[in-house]
Amino acid sequence: MDRAATADRIAALIAPFNKKGVAITDATTFAGDLEFDSLTVMDFVAAIEDEFDIIISMNQQAEIETYGQLVDAVVKLQG
Amino acid sequence: MTDLFSKFDALIAQREGLLATGVTDPFGLVMERVISPTVAVCNGRETILLGTYNYMGMTFDPDVIAAGKQALDDFGSGTTGSRVLNGTYAGHRAVEDALKEFYGMDHAMVFSTGYQANLGIISTIAGKGDYIVLDIDSHASIWDGCKMGDAEVVPFKHNDIVAMEKRLKRIPEGAGKLVILEGVYSMLGDIAPLKEMIAVARENGAMVLVDEAHSMGFIGPNGRGVAEEQGVLDQVDFVIGTFSKSVGTVGGFCVSNHPKFEIMRLVCRPYVFTASLPPSVVATAATSIRKLMHGADKRAHLWENSRTLHKGLKDLGFQLGTDEPQSAIISVIMPDLERGAGMWEALLHEGLYVNLARPPATPAGMTLLRCSLCAEHTAEQVQTIIGMFARAGKAAGIL
């Protein structure tokens, strides 16, 4: 799957977690802009993992701060 | 110069705000005198203890105390050495023998605390390229063990068998897998469906570590924990436990049937690079563990206490962590930290000590009043406790 198609699917998944309706770009940060707490992160990561049938370990999550980094990581994890 | 403490400013402000309301500092309590496993003098007042992990009430057992005094006389106050150098005395071997007998397992390794047992075993056995799959509500010592090692860490939703299975199935072929579960989760006092979870873990080729810190001594026919209660102890590769709860002193351990287990003594850094437990501590632990093997009557009374308190608090209208009592921990859910602290203080004024638990220790950002029962609480004390909750609940505006 190419980056655009992956990004579209992630965009659909993030909507229910984007409570404030923040406009999302590749530079949007999860902790800062979207104000995700640790519980939201767990639920959101689980949704992404199930959608793409991948594992995003906590070690990998530590490297992902922005939406763009997440999309890149999911593209890479799908191989 | 950047003040390295500025990262704590938000917490400092929250704490100051709370204390400004005039509430007693819940984290500054001092027990001036301890009268028994269930009563102490706190702030000059005789107080019933309902917030210790002294589940089996062994701290004042005469045989336990005598063993400790004897060891002080015979072996001195401390070992001043690591277990692998000059820190293994006869008592350390004796307590490991007692553990092997208690659990019916081939190997036992004693650490200086339960925290270090998790830290050491987890960080040592799961290394680079291995995967740890663990419950999101795991104890801090488990998380810290994960952080100290180099394995990939994959959490799943609390007690969610399907979420765990999905993650196990996605792990690359050939990678080592360790599933970490707890028998009793200490914040809400709920137990894990170990039978189902361990079956799934094994089907997927994972080794299994179960922390039974809050179940040892009273859950299971022989007090070996939730895995024994559910008939799957033989499917567990590593049981982690502690001396600081039912055993009534301090220390931690791992028991295992793994044929190569003894190598841990040379490769596990939190075991090697720290001083061993004092002789008096291992002597009290060994005596206590052997007495716990014959604690069936006490176990029955503790369960009765747990059921009575759970029903009493539920009938009063408190929101509890579990629908049914599952352990010796009954957790009362508070609406927020401010009212939780108010209720905690109202209970202290009644002469009752419980634990105020708050994030990050608690799941889902909850504030909890955590009650843990002791086999030495009398039926009358439990009724007194329920009366205190009724009055404090009204005084604090919770009921």
UniProtKB/TrEMBL annotation, chain A:
Q: Please list the residue ranges annotated as the Carrier domain.
A: 1-78
Q: Which Pfam families match?
A: PP-binding
Q: What is the name of the protein in this document?
A: Acyl carrier protein
UniProt lineage: Bacteria, Pseudomonadati, Pseudomonadota, Alphaproteobacteria, Sphingomonadales
UniProtKB/TrEMBL annotation, chain B:
- Which cofactors, if any, are listed as required? pyridoxal 5'-phosphate
Q: Describe the location of the Aminotransferase class I/classII large domain by residue ranges.
A: 47-386
Alphabetically, the GO molecular function entries are: pyridoxal phosphate binding; transaminase activity
- Is Cell membrane among the key words of this record? no
Which PROSITE patterns does the annotation name?
Answer: AA_TRANSFER_CLASS_2
Q: Which SUPFAM superfamilies match?
A: PLP-dependent transferases
User: Does the record carry Transferase as a key word?
Assistant: yes
* Keywords carried by this UniProt record: Aminotransferase, Pyridoxal phosphate, Transferase
Gene3D superfamilies per UniProt: Aspartate Aminotransferase, domain 1, Type I PLP-dependent aspartate aminotransferase-like (Major domain)
Which CDD domains would you find in this protein's record?
KBL_like
Concerning NCBIfam families, the annotation shows: SerpalmtaseAlphaP, SerpalmtaseBetaP
Q: Give the similarity note.
A: Belongs to the class-II pyridoxal-phosphate-dependent aminotransferase family.
Q: What is this protein called?
A: Aminotransferase class I/II-fold pyridoxal phosphate-dependent enzyme
Query: What is the species listed in this Swiss-Prot or TrEMBL entry?
Result: Novosphingobium aerophilum
